[in-house]
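Dear support,

I submitted the protein below through the web form. The confirmation email said the job was done, but the results page showed an empty box. After a refresh the structure appeared. I'm attaching both so you can tell me whether what I see now is the final result or a partial one.
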Amino acid sequence: MSFLPASYIWGNRVVIVNADRSIDVQPGDSLSAYSAAIYGNFDHIGKFTRRHREPIINKNMIQVNEKIYHPDPLPEEPGQSANLILPPAGNLPRQPVNHPTQAANPHHLNQFINWLLRTMNPIPNWRFVGSGGGDFGIACFTGQYFHLGLQEKSNPTQTEWFYALAGGLSIGPDTGFPVDGTMAPVSMPSLGTIFKVPTAGSHLSREDICGTFVLLDIGAAFIGGGSATIFMFGFKMPLELVYREFMRLLDGSIMPSQFPFAPSGFVTMAGLNMGLNAGVALRLGTMQQPPF
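What the results page shows now:
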């Protein structure tokens, strides 16, 4: 029995390697998605070629309805590297592939934000209970620790705590001190809502909430003050790859099909704090739940 065709699943995407080792490119496809589906990582995008092993020079630019080939054996497939047979002269001429010029389009950012506003919905199985933590800054550098309390609506008597560390950059007025920071104990009032992206499914697990996050914080305090925060959590891919995958798109309308790599959801929070600080901070961090 032939090993091919073979199907691989990654997120909400199904990648089919046909009997001739071709993959029919669908809207939203990318070589990184093929590598993730077939190999479970993003280290094998060089395995894919065009017909006759023609290398893909711009690996961020493949075309819908063209065929991409994987000439080497697939994982767990027996046998040697397949030889894609060249057609006789005059038969089956190669179809020219149009490669538009790649450019990072800032307009994609507006499309991205608009898509989030249209599609993110409150999560039905979790509710925000409270948060606490602190941040500090030296010049434009900033660090933060915080813990986030959530309750599953099916078990309202138990609060699940998630703990996070983050670092990044901040801008704001000069406070006159070389070091500044704020703190907010859990006992201080805070409000929040947790949202999910559509591809995360109808519910979020604890594993979906943990992982890499990006946080935007705006606040001010002079002894007493407050802050507003939004952070995207649950990234399952390196953020640099998330950025490249987003910025390479030429058509923002296919963004939803790109979201297997996206965050699982978002949290918006606002609350009181104490300290000396004012400004806007962008931080990258990781959030985990202790095993106890």
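Response: this is the final, complete result; the empty box was a page-load delay. The helical segments are 31-39, 107-119, 206-209, 239-247.
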